[in-house]
Fold these 4 entries.
Entry 1:
Amino acid sequence: MEQVAILNPSKIQGRDEWREECKEIFYLCKVVLGECWKDKFQDFGKLHEMLCNFLDLKKNPSRKKLISVFRGSYKTTVLIGYVIYLLTWALANKKPISIVYNTATKENAEAFMEDVRETIRQGDFYRWIFPDGLPEPKGKIYKRWSMKKIEYKWVRFHVASLDTRQVSRHYTVVINDDLVNDDNAHSDVERANVKRKWRYQKSIITRYKLRKVGLEVDVGTPFDSRDLISYITKKIKTYDKFIMPYALPDELGRVDLEKELGILTFPEMFTWEDYKELREEQGASIFSTQYELKCPEEGDLLCKEEWIKHWKYLPESYTRYMVVDPAGTDDKKHNCPTGLVVCDVNPAGTIFILHAGQYWITPKQLIDLMEEMRTFYNPDDIFVEREKYSITIADTMEHLAPKLNFSFVMHDNMPKEKRILRLKQWFETGRILFGEGMKELENQALSYPDCNYVDMLDALAYVLKVMIPPKRGIKRSVAEEQEDAFEAELNRVVALQNAMDRRNYDDMAY
């Protein structure tokens, strides 16, 4: 986007110079309207500059625009400035304009009008620059300002909600802001109702392409993969779209909230810690939808919030597995960590996860990690996905970790996505239980397939392939007892073998 050149306000002396600079939407919002209402407009940064440039018809001539920005980005404040900008220049240029602002509820519509009115009411500096612009709503003028409309000279601005009748109302500019909300996004009937009203609304837009008349702006944050905002984003190709999540990939293509990798899009207001706190409070599913703007289709969801279960006690009869999904590289540029899962499986086939992690490590570091995990968790079986990288590790282990025995698990040319989706029925039936402190794995499960990494999920999926539930009623010995039993069994086998050798020798002597 083109940078907006903002002059030092102290160097702009006359009204004409101020008006010239106010032809830029961003300048009007940040400098002039910021003086009207500092608490509302004080945090206009790069994201808001990009939004203003996207709305500016001189810089972006498209007349059908979609804006979908993460929750809390002050996008509605940008719309307040945009409406004032359109009305002001229509008055200054003596060109008629009619604008309607639509939103989901009557209360939100009236709140928007109140914000427009208060911005103008407090704008002494604004009214000095534009004496022919919008006056302060008082006296006779106040009668033309209500909770639902502004009608002054040749400009007209109305606010409406989904309950407002659309008959006999025609406008050259239609702004839809947050038509989708938590009340109407999760029901088939309500979603269909919003889409129906949105489609009928097209008839009230006065649009002449040859004369470049007519502008439609849809603004919102998705709540569901089937709601109106998701529908426009995915299905409608006639819109110019501005879609901005809370963070963008860094120069290596990485976005990771836990590791604070990526570029925050609104650093003037939010830090990484703010977003971590929001995800903790909202849960991964809502955070993914409202801040990452990821809305997977219902059928593609791997796990829902209500399917997340935690274990309090481990079973007495179980088989313990450690499964490794090796990355194949320690190059972080490829976003390719190694996934490692340690879990118990009880006789009913329920999986109790003890440890889950993802690591950017070298082959030597992976061997050390596996040896450490083997010593600490004492698994019955260790499995590693068979790849060229894992075969190399196996050769190295013969020299560096001879006690670290493991078996290969074959992918059998099954796509990773298909393997992982097999976990869905285990999540849904409550047969996968998480240990405490496994938020990273839970977030992967809840946001799949739009999560950044799936290596822990892939390792967990391999557990389904390799696990053999133990017999009921057989308690597993603790590590120390198991080592003693092994030593006793070994001594018994050696003694028996020596006795057999002596017997064979005696038979040969006779």
Entry 2:
Amino acid sequence: MDRKEKELARRRRKKRVSDKVRGTPERPRLCVFKSARHIYAQLIDDSRGHTLASASTLDKAYRTMGPKGPGKMESARWVGATIAAKALAQAITRVVFDRNGFLYHGRIQALADAAREKGLDF
């Protein structure tokens, strides 16, 4: 499977799931995106179209972890823990998980598990 076919398959999965996954003020959507180098997470209230909190490997706090930083899996765990801390600071405990068409394994699963460990419910 080449790169274009993989991206097309991810977009099909995303479209199939996006109709069912909606964020509300009480239960925002935890949207995850991963690239080859970075991973991003956002809490989104779809009713107003606002991003409530975000965390990624591009954050300044992550950059202070050293010149090379941790590996990809540890980075995903850090982003999951960070987004959970930001959510709990805003009194958000329940979210809807939007994996954005990515398969639930590897870095996506590590981010979700770290967020659950820190207190998010989804």
Entry 3:
Amino acid sequence: MQSRAVSLVAPPELLAAIEALERSTDTIFLDVQKRKVLFRADGLIVAVSDLVYDLFVTLRGVPPDERIASLVRRHGASEVSKAFQAFAEMCGVGLFAGPVSELPRKRPADVQPSGIVLMVAQTCNLACTYCYGGGGSYGSQVARMDPATARAAIDLMIDRAPARDKYTVIFFGGEPLLNFRLIRETVGYCEARAQELGKSFSHSMTTNGTVLTDAILDFLREKRFTLMVSLDGPQAVQDSLRPFVTGRGSFAVVIHNIRRLTEAGVPVQMRATLTRKTLSAEAIHEVVRIGRELGCNRVVMSPVDTTKSEGKVDEALQLGSEQLMELERIYEAITEENLEHARVGDTARAGYDPHVRMMRSLAQGKGRGLTQCGACFGMAATSSDGTLFPCHRFVGMDAYAIGDLASGFDLARIEEFFARAERAYTAKCNECWARQICCGLCYFRTADGDGGFAEPDDGACGSFRASLENAVGFLARLRELPEDEQRRYVESVRFV
């Protein structure tokens, strides 16, 4: 054994791979989900052996000759020799090539939004306990958009992106249906512009689900709206988190109206904000059960973010670093259950999977820039007075305004918006192996309120990396399953 070990010499390709990987922040080895995996920022996922993992992780930093000797002691000279041959082949196909190219930096001149968010009603009839929008007013006086402002926003979107064939108009608030007349007039204007230009428009709305007359229902169905309706859970949760301004609970009204919508054929996505009250697998499954029972075609869940909420927020609702990691452990268990259901053929209990979107993106080679925000480029928002903002969350934060409907987008302000974020993110993000996947997470969450940004939050960063690690490991495991089990898993988690 010893004489054979002496004869083993690392091939040049392997030495180059060791050197490249120890410098790289684009490639990492993960020990997750019962698999050891090499993961690269462009989405490449390769399951590796214990020997390979030892070589690049366990023995990281050890001189190559000493690594080889240690590998021989652990795995035997024959296995190490086979691994060297395999490495020569992998290096030949570029597996350990240079760093993955950086995502191109967005340029303000390229602003061509295909979507516009209209803050049609900066007022609300609910008093949600975690609201970031100042009760729907976004820090201003109660206001409703007028038809001229809405038309100007539609025209600006068309003028900035004349080559697009389809545009999206998103009605938002506060509660947008408190200004239904404006919504109806705006859709009519879009139809006229579509006929004039040979284009098409789609319409969506985020609503609290409490305002629904027969006339509104007929209109939403006729105009093929897609709705996002907020419902945080069963009655005790919903009524305590999302009461009417009078203090009365909203659960019964929202449940009734969602059912009316889905029975009428209006596509409804249900959005639940997760707080400490729903920080359990049982609570999450209950949210999904409610959505399915109501006929929703999708359930979206997001952790509560109270960083910009006005007034005193109940600390019992907030998710700190510890709770975010606990949420990821819950998510991990849910995906584990779904894979087991697919293995045994019992998919009746599946339906929601918190990792499937990320897994799907990685599998399709679209993982890079997965959470890259479309603010200013794919979309923009206009307040009721015609001020433009990067997205609906920034409305009312004048230090982040990027123009107005009278003069259009201020490209210099857009450039400064991203430059300030980049300056705040660079030091921390450049050291992170997940940076080209997450792209710094949400700009609103890190905004300091004065036009600048803070570096990304440790809790959010850690939670995202844990989620990405699990998605990578689960995808590696899924690919090893028989085709029928893979198909059962994919088909059983479409409700996301």
Entry 4:
Amino acid sequence: MAITLKRQLAEDEKEQVLKVHGRVCFATGHPIPDGEPVHFDHIRAFSEGGPSELVNIAPMCELHNKAKGTLPLEDFRVKLRLQEFFSKGDSQTLKDLLVFFREQGDVKSFGEPVIISEQDGTVRVDTSHAGSSYMCYQCPTTGWKYFYATFPIEVLDSDDEEDAKAGLQPRYLIFDKVFELYRHFQNHPVLQPSIGRVHHGRILLFDGQHKIAGLLCTGRREFECKIYLSAEVRLLNETNIAAHDKYSQTRFYSSVMVLKLGNEFGADFERYKNLEDGVPKSEAGFMRFLERDNALLTKGDRNKRFRAYLYNSILDDEGNRLKRFVSAGNRSTDEKPLTIDMLSKSLFSCFLYAEPLEDNLLAEVYKRDKEIDNNVSLMNMLHDFALSEWNPGAGPNDGSQRKLVRLFRSKSIMAWSELLQSAICGKLELQDADDRARPFYRDLSAADVERIKRVVERLLGWKLWASPPDSDIDRVLSDNKRAVKEWLRNNGLTAGYLMGAAE
């Protein structure tokens, strides 16, 4: 329900408001046609410090006045602008938001070069606008030098990928977090600075991008920062990843983290493969190399990076059509029903062998590239036969969307992936335990691919996916994976059925 004024405006007061703002909707700036009524509301709510004078009143169209609910006008306008920005995609960082603001005329420039010099415990920063000096500090653990400063947005940028090298920015912006911080910072202080580094004469931020995004929406154009002058990028990257993953209060496993870990690990992998030590190269050998080369990484960290390297190889494949439905964050959305965590516990768990292999990388027996290709092929089948029809705007009575929602719920996909693996192993006549543990680690003939395709079609065509609303399947799919799998089997979705047997 929209907020209404505590009293009705007199006609002359309405005219004064229209004289200031014009007959345009404050929410988006679009004209309000003469035949439509003009609504008036508070720009900033009284409860949040908004004045009670006409200067705090603005016109709105009827549609947006109803849509804004209890939000003050200014907050609603910011929300609409952020929704416009995020409609461009969910793989966006602070840099993308700055580009958006620059196109809107809210920011003149960003990422301008600076000249930085350090001498006698003082850091001098010169920009095209001004110059200032700051006290220089030194980390007692690493010896790295850093300083604190308040910088205008014109000289700040996001530490994103550049020149085919991954930057230190660990994740993408999230709409809810940006908007919540925007509202929070209207009345609360900023407790910690954003963190960045100096790189090629530019100040790049890798921690606190949501904070700066929220502050930008409040109109702030200067930001408190902690900036490293010189730091070992690899150690800084590992520390940053740990801060956003292992030690973060809000754990997450997003595709950007997979990308970060995969890219870092891939660079080490290439370095290992090029060693001329006369020893055959293997994935397991690389893990041993990494243990010797980087004592800071635990075995668990190394294994996590290795899995990320494999996941990224599949999700970053240009031919992977399913990847557009994988959320950049740790939560699925209406537009992107899949997450990395969901895939890691379902398709990847069943069809991607995630342990380092002893196979010689240069020998014919090494089939990791084939395994990656085969996983992409399976994901494309699921796309072409099912998710290509995904329609988040479909109503609750749309049978096709209801079926897809059931198929790709987290517990559902985890359960049927195991049944699918058993059926595909049967179709490929894999009997050995090692072969069944890595069914796609091999060359597949055109005939093999057709067999797999028929199994997938049987899975997607199972009749109970299309059950009426509020059927038993909807209750079951909220249970744990074991219960879901058992229910599927008891109702005819077995490995035998997927292989062609009668239900």
